[in-house]
Design a protein that fits this description.
five-stranded parallel beta sheet; Rossmann fold; three-stranded antiparallel beta sheet; alpha/beta
């Protein structure tokens, strides 16, 4: 994951950087709950943020189906191997499955300088242990929030992540919420081009497999009514592009007045197999 080129998410990265700067300036903790559908890029975004921040961090990912004893033991192992503790040999291993004990160990290893704690797939922890939410709230109030730490809680179960900060839940009022959506069209085009190796051939579509001869390698600079049909394939390079993923863009993305956008329409005549 880390070897792949990171694309887009500039606004989201800026939000996270501002949160970390707030921790720097205040010297106290800040919590953020990040939710979004599965595979939208939450973990990749936060990993990129941690890598760029140059700040000690712990990135713990829960595993569905684990018992509390296994999850707490894994958490302690990840903590010991992270960049948080100045001496990993001093990290106490908790073997009784107690999250309150695990959070006390975490608090004891936090440096005096700002740090980041990431708990990914957090709803699975709450699913494994009914006391987890309360243990997290108590640890935050008494141990973590007074330290310069940015706590990031990630989850794909939208309902459970919404419930995390609901009025009747222990963590209510302690974390702000951030919803991560899919990449925007420009970022998606960049990602598709990066994965397929296609080159930019026209200004009317960032990544295309074929242009009509009249528009081959020519920029779209006509009037807003000019029609420029270019084919954009979602992710599979020719010659194995299914007809269903080939779309035609009617109207240029650029015209005399600047950028213009038109919704895609199907054009079976340009479909290739």
């Amino acid at each position: 994951m880390r070897g792949a080129r990171f694309i887009g998410r500039l606004r989201e990265l800026d939000v996270l950087r501002k949160r970390l700067r707030r921790v720097h300036s205040s010297g106290t903790g800040s919590a953020l709950a990040l939710r979004g559908r599965r595979q939208v890029g939450k973990s990749r975004l936060v990993q990129e943020f941690c890598d760029q921040a140059g700040t000690p961090y712990l990135f713990f990912t829960a595993i569905k189906g684990m018992s509390p004893v296994e999850s707490v033991a894994t958490f302690c192992t990840e903590l010991q191997e992270s960049s948080l503790p100045p001496d990993s040999g001093n990290v106490v291993r908790v073997s009784n499955g107690s999250w309150p004990d695990a959070f006390r160990v975490l608090a004891s290893t936090l440096p005096s300088t700002p740090s980041i704690i990431v708990m990914d797939e957090m709803p699975w922890l709450a699913e494994q242990d009914d006391l987890f939410d309360g243990a997290l709230q108590t640890a935050w109030d008494r141990l973590l929030s007074m330290k310069p730490v940015l706590l990031l809680l990630l989850g794909s179960d939208l309902h459970m992540m919404e419930r995390l900060t609901a009025y009747d839940r222990p963590f209510y009022g302690r974390a702000d919420t951030m919803v991560l959506g899919p990449l925007n069209p420009a970022e998606t085009a960049d990602a598709v081009g990066s994965s397929t190796g296609w080159r930019r051939r026209s200004r009317c579509s960032p990544w295309i497999s074929r242009c009509p001869p009249s528009r081959e390698n020519r920029p779209c600079t006509g009037s807003p009514t000019t029609t420029c049909e270019c084919i954009w394939a979602s992710s599979v390079p020719p010659p194995i592009i299914p007809a269903g993923v080939v779309q035609t863009w009617h109207s240029a993305w650029f015209n005399d007045d600047g950028p213009a956008f038109a919704a895609p329409r199907w054009n079976p005549s340009y479909a290739t197999r």
